[in-house]
Structure to design on (1073 residues):
C-alpha cells in the first residue's frame, strides 16, 4: 500500500459491497479493507420479529426503508421512493423478493436498436460467464428447458430465457394450481408461460414469509456480511455501521485517495485513505457523493466534467390488469409468497421500441385473508361464501424505461435520518409514454379476457425507486457515461462505482442478478490488476 | 342487533388504547391453560379444526413465548384477557361468551356504541381501543385468530371435507411452515398439465 | 432383567440397552415402553448420519439417486420426530444430545435391532447399500438379498409392532404438552388412533406394508418404501412390480449410478487432530461443532416443547451439509479416499 490506511475502501454493505469484499478476501485473507455502511443492523431470523410479521405485516427493518420526504421529487412525474431501498447492514437484498432474471442480448444495445437510452460497452456473451457465477452465488432456481440456444434469439423458439452455458443450480419452483387458467390463456394467445427464476437456497420451507425468512433461505447481503465478519482469518477487515460517508477526497484530479465519514461513536468526521475506493451505494447515493466531492480538481464533482453524473435515471413502471370472476369453487388462495408464472414473450427485440414488458401473475391474487374475515367477526357460513365467492386475478408487468438526458438525480436540501444528503429527483416521463403503456396494457387485458374474467382495472403504477438504475452509467467514453467498462470513473485512476447506477439500461427485469454478474466481473478485474 | 355493550363492569372499564405495559416473564400454568381455552374456542366457533387444536398447540406455545419473553411483552394483555373472558363466561355461559366476543353480531365492544369489527390493519392504522374488552379482542383474540389460521386452521376452509390431516392433500398458506419442495410431499397444490 | 430402578439417564451408554424384543411380553409395561420409545428415537437417529454420508457424497445433488436417498432421510427425520412425540406424550423427555446416547460409528444399531449389522459412515457404495437394505428389510416375506428372515427376526418393523401392542395394552394417558408439529412431525399423539397412524406410517415408509407396493402395481419412486428404494439404487434399475413368487423385480427404467466423492469409511472414534492436516482439522472440528449444535437444538425442542428451536435446527442441518460436502471433496492421500464428517458430539 502507498502509505494508505487500506488497500480497499468499500462504501455500502449491500450485495455489491459484500460480494466485492468476499472475492477480495477469498483471494487474499489479509487484504486490508474498510467497509462503511450508513444504516444500522437489524436482527434477522428472530422469532418475535417473525411472529410480528405474520400477525401485523411489520418487518424488523421497516425503519430502514425510504420514507416519503427523504427524496423530494421535483419533476413533471412524481417519483415515489417510499419503501424503495433498505439502508442498512446488508443493503436492499434484505428486503428484496429475489426474482433473478438475466438481461437479454438486445438489452445491451438499446441505443443502437431504438435510438434511446444507452448501450453497454460490452455484449451479453461477455457477461454470460459471470451470469453463471451469479446464479451459483445467489442460488437461483430456474428452468433449464426454457433457455434459448446460443446464437438463436429466445423469441425464435418460444423460449423465455437467453442462452446459458451452465444449468441453473437448482430446479424451478412449480407452477401452482391457480396458475392454470393463465397458463392456458397464455398458450392460446401465443404467449410462452415460464417459471419465475428465484434466488432461494435448498433450505426453503415454503413459509410464505420470504421478506423475513425464518430459515434464511432467501439470499440477503446481511448473511454474506455475517460470514465475512465471523471469519477469523480476515483480520484486516474493518466494518463500521451507522457511519455515513459525507465526502470523497481527491489528492489530484485522477487520484481519489480518501473518504470522510461520520464516526457513530463521537459524531466527528474521520478520514480514511485507500488505494482503491469502491462506491457500492446504490443508484441514489453514488451520483450525490461524486457531485459534492473533488474540488478544486473537479469543478462540478468527480467524474462530472461532461455533466452526466446523475442523469438518465430509470426504474420500472409497474403495469397491472385485474379481473374478476363470479366463483372460486376451487377455493384458491395464495400459496407462495412470490409469483411462479411469468413470461418474457413481450420482452424481446421486436418490443424494444415500444417498451418491452416482463409479465408475471401477481402472487397475491387470488387470495382471501381468512383470518381477517374471522377478526371482522364473520360466521363460518359467511366466510365460506367469501372463500368460494368472487375471485380476482391480476396480471402484472414491468415495462422497460429508456434513460433520458433531461432527467436527473442530484443533491437535495438537508440530510435524512441516516446522515446522508436528500436526493432531489427530477424526472418526467416522455410524452408518448402513456400511449406506449396503453399498448402494453391492451396486450395484458387480452390475457385476462381470454381467461374468462371481467376486467375491472388497468392502472399504471406510480414511478417508484426499487429498481433505479443508470445514474452513473457505463459508457465507451466520457461523453457517453460516467464509468468505463471496468466501472472506473472516467478521469480517475482508482475510484469505482459498483451498483445499479452503472447499468446503461434497466431492461424489463429486476436488476440484481445483473448487478451480481457485473460485480463479479469487477472483482476479477481488480484482482488481475492490483496496484 | 343491540346497542348495549357486551360484558359487565370489568369488560366496560376504560383503558388507554396502547399496549398495556409489562415486563417479560414466563406465564404460569394457570394462565396458559386459560389462554388455551380462548384459542380452542376459535376452532369451536369457526369449526375449522379437524379433530381438535392439539396439532396447533406447539405453534401457539412458541408464539406465546415470543410474545411474553421479549419486548414489548404481552403479559398484561393476557392477564387482562383472562379476566375479561372470565366475566363473559359468568354472564353468558361459555358458548355464548365466546360467540359474543368473536362474532360480529352487532354488539359493540367499545364505549362509543360502534361495533369493533374492523379487521386487523396491516398498515398500523390506529384503532380506538378504550375498554378492557376491546383490548382483549384486539391484542389477544385477533392475534390468536391469526396464529390459529396460519398454523393450520386455514386448511379446513380450503379443504372442508377432509376428516383428518393428510399432508399429501397439500395446500399452503402464508405463515405456515409447509416444508421443503424436495420432500416427497409437495408444499403447495401444484399445476398439473391437462392430459391430452 | 429388572429395569424398574434404572432411569434412561442411568442407562446412559447406548450399547448397554438390552435387546428389548427379547423381553417377555408379560413383563413389559410403562417403563418398557419408555425404554422402547427412547430406543426407537435412537434407532431412527442412528440411520441418519450413514444415510446422509451416502447422500452428500453424491456430487450432483439433483441426481435422481440423490433425490431418492434424500426422501429417505427426510422420512427418517420424520420418524424420529414422531417417536419423540410419542415419548413426550407419555411424559418423558427424549435424549438426543447426551454424548453417551449418540450413536458411534462403526457400530451396531441400538436396542438389539439387527444385531448382526455393522453400520459405518462412508460414501455411497454397493457395500453401504447392502447395509441400508438390511436395515430397512421387512419382517414379512423374504428376499434373496436380505439376510435370513423368519419368526422372531429382529427388524425395525417388528420393533414398532411391539411398541404399538404395548400402547394398546397399557392405554397410557397421552399429553400433548411439549409435542411439536411441522413439516418434520405432522402427527401429534393426541390419542391412540394418532399413535397407530404414526406407527403405520413409519413402518409403511420404511419397509413397506403388505399393501405397499401391491403385487403387480409399479409405483413411482417417491411413494416407494425405503427398502425398495435402496434396492433400486443397488440394481441400477427402477422397481417393476412383484413376480409370481412375490419377489420384487427391478427391470424398470435404468437408474444410472451417480458420480460420487470416494468418502472413506470414517475410522472408529473419528479423525483425530494429530492425524490430519491443520486446515482439514479446522473443517472436521467445525462440522462436529455444527453437529453438536444441531443436537443441542433438537434436545431443546422436546425438552421444552420449543418449536422455534426446531426452526433453528432445520437451518443448522443445511449448514452441516455444506461443511460435510466441502470435507468430502478433500483427498486423504495415498489412495485412501476422501475425508468426511465424523458426526461426533463435542
Amino acid at each position: 500500500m502507498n502509505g494508505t490506511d487500506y488497500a480497499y475502501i468499500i462504501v455500502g454493505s449491500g450485495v455489491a459491497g459484500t460480494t466485492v469484499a468476499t472475492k477480495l478476501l477469498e483471494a487474499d485473507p489479509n487484504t486490508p479493507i474498510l467497509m462503511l455502511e450508513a444504516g444500522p443492523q437489524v436482527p434477522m431470523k428472530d422469532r418475535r420479529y417473525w411472529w410480528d410479521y405474520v400477525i401485523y405485516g411489520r418487518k424488523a427493518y421497516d425503519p430502514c426503508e425510504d420514507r416519503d420526504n427523504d427524496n423530494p421529487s421535483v419533476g413533471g412525474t412524481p417519483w415515489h421512493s417510499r419503501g424503495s431501498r433498505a439502508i442498512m447492514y446488508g443493503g436492499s437484498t434484505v428486503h428484496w423478493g429475489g426474482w433473478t432474471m438475466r438481461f437479454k442480448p438486445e438489452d445491451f444495445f438499446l441505443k443502437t436498436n431504438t435510438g434511446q437510452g444507452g448501450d453497454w460497452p460490452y455484449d451479453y456473451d461477455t457477461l454470460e460467464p459471470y451470469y453463471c457465477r451469479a446464479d451459483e452465488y445467489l442460488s437461483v432456481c430456474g428452468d433449464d428447458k426454457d433457455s434459448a440456444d446460443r446464437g438463436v434469439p429466445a423469441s425464435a423458439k418460444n423460449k423465455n430465457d437467453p442462452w446459458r452455458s451452465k444449468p441453473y443450480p437448482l430446479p424451478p419452483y412449480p407452477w401452482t394450481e391457480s396458475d392454470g387458467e393463465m397458463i392456458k390463456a397464455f398458450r392460446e394467445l401465443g404467449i410462452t408461460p415460464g417459471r419465475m427464476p428465484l434466488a432461494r437456497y435448498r433450505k426453503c420451507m415454503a413459509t410464505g414469509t420470504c421478506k423475513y425468512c425464518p430459515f434464511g433461505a432467501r439470499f440477503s447481503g446481511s448473511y454474506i456480511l455475517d460470514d465475512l465478519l465471523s471469519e477469523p482469518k480476515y483480520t484486516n477487515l474493518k466494518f463500521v455501521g451507522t457511519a455515513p460517508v459525507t465526502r470523497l477526497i481527491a489528492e489530484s484530479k485522477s487520484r481519489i485517495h480518501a473518504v470522510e465519514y461520520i464516526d457513530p461513536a463521537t459524531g466527528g468526521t474521520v478520514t480514511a485513505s485507500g488505494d482503491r475506493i469502491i462506491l457500492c451505494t446504490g443508484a441514489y447515493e453514488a451520483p450525490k457523493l461524486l457531485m459534492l466531492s473533488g474540488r478544486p480538481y473537479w469543478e462540478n464533482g468527480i467524474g462530472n466534467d461532461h455533466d452526466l453524473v446523475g442523469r438518465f435515471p430509470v426504474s420500472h413502471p409497474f403495469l397491472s390488469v385485474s379481473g374478476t370472476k363470479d366463483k372460486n369453487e376451487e377455493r384458491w388462495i395464495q400459496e407462495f409468497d412470490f409469483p411462479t408464472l411469468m413470461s418474457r414473450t413481450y420482452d424481446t427485440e421486436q418490443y424494444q421500441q415500444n417498451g418491452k414488458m416482463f409479465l408475471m401473475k401477481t402472487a397475491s391474487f387470488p387470495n382471501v385473508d381468512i383470518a381477517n374475515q374471522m377478526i371482522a367477526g364473520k360466521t363460518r357460513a359467511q366466510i365460506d361464501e367469501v372463500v368460494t365467492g368472487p375471485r380476482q386475478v391480476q396480471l402484472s408487468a414491468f415495462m422497460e424505461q429508456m434513460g433520458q438526458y433531461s432527467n436527473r438525480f442530484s443533491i437535495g436540501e438537508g440530510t435524512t435520518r441516516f446522515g446522508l444528503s436528500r436526493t432531489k429527483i427530477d424526472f418526467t416521463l416522455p410524452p408518448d409514454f402513456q400511449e406506449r403503456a396503453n399498448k402494453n396494457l391492451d396486450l395484458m387485458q387480452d390475457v385476462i379476457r381470454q381467461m374468462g374474467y371481467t376486467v375491472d382495472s388497468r392502472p399504471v403504477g406510480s414511478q417508484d425507486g426499487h429498481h433505479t438504475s443508470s445514474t452513473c452509467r457505463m459508457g465507451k467514453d466520457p461523453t457517453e457515461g460516467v464509468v468505463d467498462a471496468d466501472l472506473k470513473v472516467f478521469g480517475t485512476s482508482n475510484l469505482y462505482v459498483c451498483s445499479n447506477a452503472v447499468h446503461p439500461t434497466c431492461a424489463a427485469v429486476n436488476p440484481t442478478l445483473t448487478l451480481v454478474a457485473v460485480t463479479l466481473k469487477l472483482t476479477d478485474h481488480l484482482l488481475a490488476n492490483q496496484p | 342487533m343491540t346497542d348495549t355493550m357486551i360484558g359487565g363492569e370489568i369488560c366496560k372499564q376504560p383503558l388507554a388504547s396502547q399496549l398495556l405495559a409489562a415486563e417479560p416473564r414466563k406465564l404460569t400454568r394457570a394462565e396458559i391453560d386459560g389462554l388455551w381455552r380462548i384459542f380452542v374456542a376459535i376452532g369451536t366457533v369457526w369449526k375449522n379444526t379437524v379433530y381438535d387444536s392439539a396439532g396447533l398447540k406447539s405453534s401457539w406455545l412458541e408464539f406465546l413465548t415470543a410474545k411474553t419473553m421479549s419486548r414489548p411483552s404481552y403479559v398484561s394483555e393476557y392477564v387482562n384477557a383472562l379476566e375479561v373472558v372470565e366475566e363473559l363466561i359468568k354472564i353468558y355461559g361459555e358458548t355464548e361468551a365466546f360467540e359474543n366476543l368473536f362474532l360480529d353480531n352487532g354488539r359493540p365492544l367499545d364505549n362509543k356504541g360502534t361495533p369493533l369489527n374492523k379487521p386487523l390493519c396491516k398498515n398500523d392504522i390506529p384503532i380506538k381501543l378504550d375498554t378492557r374488552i376491546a383490548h382483549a379482542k384486539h391484542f389477544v383474540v385477533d392475534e390468536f385468530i391469526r396464529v390459529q389460521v396460519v398454523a393450520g386452521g386455514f386448511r379446513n376452509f380450503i379443504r372442508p371435507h377432509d376428516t383428518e390431516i393428510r399432508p399429501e392433500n397439500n395446500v399452503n398458506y402464508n405463515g405456515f411452515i409447509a416444508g421443503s419442495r424436495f420432500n416427497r410431499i409437495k408444499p403447495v397444490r401444484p399445476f398439473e398439465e391437462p392430459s391430452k | 432383567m429388572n429395569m424398574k430402578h434404572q432411569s434412561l439417564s442411568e442407562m446412559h451408554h447406548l450399547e448397554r440397552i438390552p435387546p428389548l424384543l427379547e423381553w417377555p411380553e408379560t413383563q413389559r409395561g410403562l417403563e418398557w415402553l419408555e425404554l422402547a420409545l427412547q430406543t426407537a428415537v435412537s434407532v431412527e437417529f442412528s440411520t441418519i448420519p450413514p444415510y446422509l454420508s451416502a447422500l452428500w457424497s453424491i456430487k450432483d445433488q439433483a441426481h435422481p439417486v440423490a433425490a431418492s436417498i434424500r426422501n429417505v432421510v427426510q422420512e427418517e427425520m420424520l420418524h424420529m420426530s414422531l417417536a419423540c412425540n410419542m415419548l413426550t406424550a407419555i411424559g418423558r423427555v427424549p435424549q438426543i444430545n447426551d454424548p453417551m446416547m449418540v450413536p458411534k460409528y462403526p457400530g451396531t444399531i441400538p436396542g438389539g435391532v439387527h444385531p448382526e449389522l455393522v453400520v459405518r459412515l462412508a460414501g455411497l457404495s454397493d457395500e453401504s447399500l447392502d447395509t441400508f437394505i438390511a436395515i430397512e428389510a421387512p419382517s414379512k416375506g423374504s428376499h434373496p438379498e436380505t439376510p435370513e428372515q423368519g419368526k422372531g427376526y429382529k427388524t425395525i418393523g417388528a420393533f414398532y409392532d411391539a411398541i404399538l401392542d404395548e400402547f394398546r395394552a397399557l392405554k397410557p394417558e397421552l399429553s400433548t404438552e411439549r409435542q411439536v408439529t411441522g413439516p418434520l412431525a405432522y402427527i401429534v399423539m393426541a390419542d391412540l388412533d394418532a399413535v397407530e397412524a404414526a406407527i403405520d406410517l413409519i413402518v409403511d415408509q420404511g419397509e413397506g406394508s403388505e399393501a405397499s407396493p401391491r403385487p403387480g402395481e409399479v409405483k413411482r419412486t417417491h411413494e416407494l418404501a425405503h427398502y425398495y428404494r435402496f434396492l433400486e439404487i443397488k440394481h441400477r434399475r427402477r422397481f417393476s412390480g412383484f413376480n409370481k413368487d412375490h419377489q420384487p423385480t427391478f427391470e424398470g427404467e435404468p437408474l444410472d449410478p451417480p458420480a460420487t466423492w470416494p468418502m472413506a469409511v470414517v475410522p472408529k472414534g473419528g479423525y483425530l487432530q494429530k492425524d490430519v492436516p491443520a486446515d482439514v482439522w479446522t473443517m472436521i472440528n467445525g462440522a462436529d461443532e455444527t453437529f453438536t449444535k444441531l443436537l443441542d437444538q433438537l434436545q431443546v425442542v422436546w425438552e421444552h416443547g420449543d418449536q422455534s428451536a426446531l426452526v433453528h435446527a432445520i437451518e443448522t442441518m443445511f449448514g452441516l451439509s455444506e461443511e460435510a460436502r466441502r470435507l468430502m471433496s478433500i483427498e486423504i492421500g495415498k489412495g485412501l479416499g476422501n475425508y468426511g464428517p465424523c458426526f461426533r458430539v463435542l
